[in-house]
Amino acid sequence: MHQGAGSMKRIGVLGLQGAVQEHLDMLRQIGEIEACMVKYKADVENIDGLIIPGGESTAIGRLLSDFDLTVPLKARIENGMPVWGTCAGMILLARNISNDERRHLEVMDIEVMRNGYGRQLDSFKTTVDIPAVSAQKVPLVFIRAPYVVDISPQVEVLLSLDGHIVACRQKNMLATSFHPELTGDLSFHKYFADMI
Question: Which residues carry out catalysis?
């Protein structure tokens, strides 16, 4: 582990593609956190937690492979490093993707439907109560979002919307269908920081 006694938590944002800067900006608004971009194998060893941002899951998956990051990232996650996948990041963490034969990190016991909200509901916003995450209502932004269609008993559902699981946690792994980095609300970033 990188973190020493009383030192800052060092949270990385996977910097290959997607909403990287937005996550870094949110993290920098929380005290006691050093936010950094993760792009290379050496970066993986120097963080206490990782956010995999929204973007294009196929592109990010290919870049993980191109940058030789799949194996070291998977190893750190399986050894307990906290990780949070938002939107495309959820797809990258999933063991199964119901409408795609490609697999990426395969660390979380969830099955995900890519672009679950499809064309007719490409993007939408809502505000909900998520008691496990915040005492206040939390604004959510969905953009061509996936959702979880199946989970193992080890996975805790944090939020379902209209019968679809859109936020869940399994030990050190957090996955959300939506984009908290686009709302200005720090609830989920704080929740993730507390997992570290």
Answer: 87, 179, 181
